[in-house]
Amino acid sequence: MVVSATADYDLPVETFLLLMVEPRVQAETHRVVRESLRTTPTPFARLDVDGWGNPLRRFLAPKGFFCFDFNATIETEPNSPLPKDAAETAPQQLPVDVLPFTLPSRYCPSDKLIAFAGSEFGTGKSGARKVQAVVDWVNAKIRYEYNTTDASTGADEVLLKRAGVCRDFAHLAVALCRAMSLPARYVSGYCLGLDPPDFHAWAQVYLAGAWHNIDATFAGTRPALVPIAVGRDAADVSLLTLWSPATVREQSVSVREIPEDDVLSATD
Fold it and tell me: What is the Cβ-side half-sphere exposure of residue 128, based on CA atoms within 13 angstroms?
């Protein structure tokens, strides 16, 4: 598939910023065949990897107009549904890098949802069946609705409002899973078939020794998902983190499928 992401900003002062739009070059289910990132000129730019292993760019952008334009051709496997027989891992057997994803975080205060999760999902199910019950409940009970939530809204508020966007659906699914001691993390990335096209957010749950995609915004299995970054919640994987205020002029995202021969020719 081919992805592109562009955005324009007005910066009132010289600003340090972090940009996260580039997927890992090689991951379990995708491989970046070709990519390019262009920005307005900056006096400082550096590619880094954060504590979760996500690629990110550091920039010191001058006052005024700042823009980026990212394009990539990506070879990706179809997104797989949650395996029905995937079992829970006992807490004492969880890898050390998975343990942080069992704990409450800024937008996923799972400790506040323990009683609700236990009463709604805690009996008669385990592993994948319990996770699927969470996904189905969030998909059925939460309305996809703009302008109901904002960048400060946490999963507990989404549960009360019963509405939100993909970020909110992912936060609630993550928080409910963690409330039942199931490791879950937040994912930002590119989604094939999203209408209208945009950056997307979903969740991953750790079962049977592996991370599995779960997307409560869709009653089924998304055809292809390419993560940009994973973290405890949206605070860890923001598209753009700025150290000064800024105004967004315009932003656009495109994700489209291309024939396999076209992907292979991009390597020639």
Answer: 14
* 267 band by pLDDT with thresholds 50, 70 and 90: low
- 227 and 255 assigned to the same domain: no
* Upstream peptide bond of 223 is cis (omega within 30 degrees of 0): no
Q: What is the pTM of this model?
A: 0.95
Give pLDDT tens digits for 149-164.
999 999 999 999 999 9
List residues bridging with 234 in a β-sheet.
Answer: none
Q: Measuring CA to CA, which residue among 252, 250, 253 is closest to residue 10?
A: 250
Helix (H, G, I), strand (E, B) or coil at 115: helix
Tokens of 81: 């549904």
Indicate the number of domains in the chain: 2
Distance CA 120, CA 186 (A): 22
The CA–CA distances, whole Å, from 222 to 141, 164, 191 equal 19, 19, 8
Residues 247 and 231 in one domain: no
**Which of 251, 131, 222, 218 lies closest to 183 in space, CA to CA?**
131
Q: Which domain holds residue 110?
A: 91-236
Query: Which pairing describes strands 184-191 and 225-231: parallel, antiparallel, or unpaired?
Result: antiparallel
126's tokens: 């385990």
Q: Give CA torsion, residues 80, 102, 97, 242, to 10 deg.
A: 90
**Distance (Å, whole) CA 236 – CA 222:** 23
- Residue 9 φ/ψ, nearest 5 degrees: -135, 155
